[in-house]
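Weekly puzzle thread! Below is a chain. First person to post its structure in token form gets bragging rights.
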Amino acid sequence: MQGPQALVAVSINGREARLLADSGTLYSTLSAAGAARLGLSVSAPPEPIMTQGVGGDEPASMTTARSFTLGKASLADVQFIVGGISPPGAVGVLGENVLGRFDTEYDFAHGLIRLVRPRDCAHADLAYWATARPHSMMAIERGAGSIDVPRGTAWLNGTAIRVLFDTGATHSLLALRAAERAGVRPDSPGVTPGGELHGAGPHPIRSWIAPFASFRIGDEEILHTHLRVGDLGLGDTDMLLGADFFLAHHVYISASQQRAYFTYNGGPVFNLSAPSTAPAANH
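Winning reply:
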């Protein structure tokens, strides 16, 4: 962990590099400078590609790594989108086109990510570490494609919201429209300015810190909490569950079962301090 960012060591065509583990990104990405440093050939995609993130969209190119190694996993012909700015300390981000090939366990409190290939576990409880404490399990929504980012349903003031498990977002962030559905607006009592957010897009966005009576996800409910609210602009995603949520929880995303398991580590779930960067989701 580099602060709230999970950086992983990889090998791309035999060259060492670091990528930000980003479960909220569909495709892995490299900056143009990162692709050049790794000696990768960049080309225009068959059809125009736009990276979508907090702060807007940007055009991008593509490249392919003939060999890619992450821990003990070796993959061939891994595609990367090329464009945007790299996270600090990394040449790009590692998205679900790689992470989604495995069940992925996030133990950020101990600086660990584990890639798991389960066998004969279709009906097993995969929260193997939670032998002496309660844990939550919830369904994960998957699209029609072969890969997708992990989304699920949470409840805010009793209203259903669609949340994205996004390790690449430094701070969790609630969409303005979702806050309004739950009865909270920027001019509501108790709402305070939260500063500007700078994400993957080219434009900063305003944010607010707003009080909510309850936030429930799985079997876990937080009463009388505060959330950071901003104009996400990410389609039908209502909230990013960022690295602050993952630091406060031990999380297992099961692509095989389409479920998420998690336990609470302790401490604050949502980081409300002024962010130096915003959620960096690209889709």
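Puzzle host: Confirmed. Bonus trivia for everyone else. Residues 278-283 have pLDDT under 50 and may be disordered.
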